[in-house]
Amino acid sequence: MAPAALLIAALCLAGCHNISDDITGSIGQDSVPPNSPAQLQRYTEDLGQRYDAQPYDKHTAMAYARALRASGRYDQAVAVAQRLAAKYPKDMQVLGAYGKALAEDGRLREAETILPEAHTPDQPNWSILSAQGVVEDQLGDHDQAQAYYRAALKIAPNQPEVLSNLGLSYALSRQLPLAEETMRLAAAQPGADTRVRQNLALVLALEGKFDAAQGVAQEDLSPVDAAENVASIKEMIAQSDTWNQIRSYDKPKLAAAAPHRVRHYARLNKTPPEDLRPTQVGAAD
Question: How many CA atoms within 13 Å lie on the side-chain side of 44?
Fold first, then answer.
């Protein structure tokens, strides 16, 4: 496997882009799904019963779709959100939930169409921008994705999930030192969760910093599980060319890879709103 292909394969297997939910102004803090698998199952079943009784109640349906997403039942989340969007076709919160569910279900072109309808140029939503970035990363347009993440960080500076997505995007575009720098910033934020730290561990492993990667992974995993995670990435490396070849992709790009630079923003003949164009999109700080 060529170095670039190895990098992308490793990220696709282990990297975790995060599609955030902006709770403010939507369905309340009490609607956040629990972390425990058993509690999440009970929570989702309870919401399912409430949803069956009132399928067009906006708060119930959105909470149920979110619980289904948290449970990995993405196709069901899409069905719930799609039904609600048909009832409330102009509601941006509903369209946001629908677009995010589509993105997590892998229906990227549909998500790319719906998500821009979930916020406006004068009132952009950071979580929608981040979701748009995730879609573009998965479609292979990393420049476009990074522009979305930077726009999100203008609204929510140092938001750890957005920083983590930006770090993965840098890794996917083979800018590993910049990916590590961004991931470390994400992991240092008070709200950073397990996924953010595991993404940092992944990037460190991709750079060949296996001991450091295992140390970060052990913050959330047992030493055995952390070692197995790093070993799986190491095994992929052993089947490819050397790490010097992989890391050589960064060398000619470092000067042009500064976090303040965006190479292009428009995609598919779309023009970004004035306040989201590259000259106005700053770095996380």
Answer: 21
